[in-house]
Design brief:
Layout: H1 11-62, E1 66-70, E2 85-89, E3 92-97, E4 104-108, E5 114-117, E6 127-133, E7 142-147, E8 153-158
Length: 164
């Protein structure tokens, strides 16, 4: 008679594998959520910089004032920055940006809801906006967008862990 050879895993081997997998997941998940937060913040900051560059370029091209303003409805300058924004030349909407995802916050340090770019491309006043995660918990990082008096925008990554 021939002995049958069985292949497979024992219950102990399976339990050890599941335990090791659980430990690895417990380590990886918090790091993954920080990567996702960083990606989302970078995306929103880049969208705002692109909008300010568009507004500046349109002001020069049209030889008139172009506004970049907070907009909750996508057609006029009403609302706050996390509800979205528009690039507006006179009464013509050039670009619309959707609202930030739930839990994200975007605050202008002086409370301004509009940036005006003159026909020379110069902004009216220097502006600083902060994008961060406010809920369900304050994120450990944020992006600070600075629009200089010359109208140029730049982004800085900070890690204060305090969402204004």
């Amino acid at each position: 008679m021939r002995a049958q050879i069985q292949s497979g895993f024992t219950l102990v081997e399976l339990m050890v594998t599941i335990a090791v997998l659980a430990i690895l997941l417990a380590i990886a998940v918090p790091s993954f959520s920080e990567v996702m937060l960083s990606s989302r913040l970078r995306s929103y900051a880049n969208d705002f910089v692109a909008s300010s560059t568009l507004a500046r370029g349109e002001a020069i091209k049209r030889n008139s004032v172009v506004n970049l303003c907070a907009s909750s409805n996508g057609t006029s300058c009403v609302g706050n920055w996390e509800q979205g924004w528009i690039v507006l030349a006179g009464t013509t909407v050039i670009q619309r940006q959707q609202a930030l995802s739930s839990g994200m916050k975007m605050v202008e340090s002086g409370g301004a809801a509009s940036l005006n770019f003159q026909s020379t491309g110069v902004g009216t006043t220097p502006t600083t906006l902060t994008i961060c995660r406010a809920t369900p918990s304050v994120g450990s990082q944020e992006r600070v967008i600075s629009v200089s008096a010359t109208g140029r925008a730049s982004v800085t990554k900070t890690a204060t862990g305090v969402c204004p």
